[in-house]
Design brief:
Blueprint lengths: L2 H18 L17 H6 L4 E6 L1 H4 L5 H9 L3 E4 L5 H4 L9 H12 L3 E8 L6 H8 L5 H18 L6 E6 L16 H7 L2 H13 L4 E6 L14 H14 L6 E4 L2 E3 L7 H12 L4 E12 L6 H24 L3 E6 L9 H4 L5 E2 L12 H12 L16
Parallel strand pairs: 1-2, 1-9, 2-3, 3-4, 4-5, 5-6, 6-8, 7-8, 8-9
Antiparallel strand pairs: 8-10
Helix pairs in contact: 8-10, 12-13, 13-15
This protein binds (3S,4R)-3-hydroxy-2-oxopiperidin-4-yl beta-D-xylopyranoside.
């Protein structure tokens, strides 16, 4: 080899090492990808693998493993509750930033990106707000102004520190709601009409020109009939298309990914197709709240538990593979990483559900964890290429 070719070869090796985020393997110390975290493995694809963080667990001195894994295993974090309006402004006019600030600091210390969750949602609103609207002491006009101020205040506080904001969450109904024809649902649509969605994105953009602004929803992992009257993915697709046509600064569609093993669910190619259809609008995509719950069975009954663990792992993997296949899919966030701290048992109790995360209650990695890891390890060119992020829309 000529000197010049050696230099080229060395440069390629260095670049490869940088891209793989690893040190070179040696005979005495072979490269072992299974020893890498999900976060590190994801970064090889420029994919951020994140988790929602429960601040009480993070601060529990008797539960150090929670903090250790939250810090080491993921390259992105989301506040499970700390950035919701009821947490930030429990009393009208008085913001309590302590928990949200703490998460942003934690992320900075651990070199993690932050998904901001959530600016506009019909749940977990402060009681003073919903009561004021209900008793008429807050007028519609005042409500709109309160929303504008809230978005501006929160986005401004974390300007430059949030990678992706969930600006509007769960604005669209489901086919099982009444009426069954899909429609804009909930507190904000009822009180302000659907225009609040465009307003919210414009207000968020005015406060932070650099954050990627997302619409976030569940039950949009795959397309169905293609009729927006009963296909929620199609409804959301058409909604975003319409917003973009009006020049609304929306940069991404977040698919929550709350699945259950008792349902039919989707295969990798269906989910890939859905992400591609969203991406064709010119927006980024992300899985933002992935968990795969099961109906619980007799404790310790392995004949029942094993199929659930396998089905859960398979569904986690379907979403991961689809995300890897589509370059616009920027992040894959799990909604809690351990069954010790998961919203599922609290929210789905009839029949009781659980086993929804990638680590068990003792922080032992489950089959789902290993499947995600192997998806990240075995993915590569030409089918899986690094992510490409859009520029935030002006
Ligand atoms: C959930 C939290 O995990 C719970 O701790 C809380 O009691 C209720 O909200 N979709 C969302 C999340 O966008 O904000 C929800 O989080 C789960 C469903």
């Amino acid at each position: 080899m000529t000197h010049r070719r050696w230099i080229t070869a060395a440069a390629v090796a260095v670049a490869t090492v940088a891209a793989l985020n690893t040190v070179p393997a040696t005979a005495s110390r072979p490269y072992d990808p299974t020893a890498q975290s999900l976060g590190a493995l994801g970064l090889r694809h420029k994919l951020h693998v994140g988790t929602a963080v429960d601040m009480a667990a993070l601060n529990d001195a008797n539960d150090p493993e929670y903090r250790r894994l939250a810090a080491s295993e993921f390259s992105s974090v989301t506040a499970e509750n700390a950035m919701k309006w009821e947490s930030l402004e429990p009393t009208r006019g008085t913001y309590d930033w302590a928990a949200a600030d703490q998460l942003v600091e934690f992320a900075k210390r651990n070199r993690q990106s932050v998904r901001g969750h959530v600016l506009v949602w019909h749940n977990q609103l402060p009681a003073w707000l919903t009561a004021g609207v209900a008793d008429g002491s807050i007028s519609k006009q005042e409500l709109r102004e309160l929303l504008r101020r809230h978005i501006t205040t929160v986005v401004n506080r974390y300007k430059g520190k949030i990678w992706q904001w969930d600006v509007v969450n769960e604005a669209v109904s489901d086919p099982w709601d009444t009426p069954s024809t899909l429609h804009y649902k909930g507190f904000w649509a009822q009180n302000l009409g659907p225009d609040y969605i465009a307003d919210a994105f414009r207000w968020a953009r005015a406060a932070d020109p650099r954050a990627l602004l997302f619409y976030n929803d569940y039950n949009i992992e795959a397309f169905g009939s293609g009729n927006p009257a009963d296909d929620k993915s199609q409804f959301v697709h058409d909604m975003v298309k319409g917003l973009l046509a009006q020049g609304v600064p929306i940069d991404g569609i977040g698919s929550q990914g709350h699945l259950g093993t008792q349902y039919g669910n989707y295969d990798t190619l269906q989910v890939t197709a859905a992400l591609k259809r969203f991406a064709a609008l010119g927006v980024a995509t992300a899985f933002t709240e992935v968990d795969v719950r099961s109906e619980l069975t007799e404790p310790g009954d392995s004949a029942e538990i094993n199929p659930r663990l396998q089905a859960s792992a398979a569904n986690f993997s379907v979403l991961m593979k689809a995300c890897l296949a589509v370059r616009s899919c920027l992040s894959y966030t799990v909604w809690g990483f351990s069954d010790r701290h998961s919203w599922v048992p609290e929210w789905f109790d009839d029949p009781p559900q659980g086993m929804a995360t990638i680590y068990d209650e003792n922080y032992q990695p489950k089959r789902a964890y290993h499947e995600l890891k192997s998806d990240l390890i075995f993915a590569g060119p030409p089918y899986v290429l690094p992510r490409v992020a859009p520029r935030p829309r002006g």
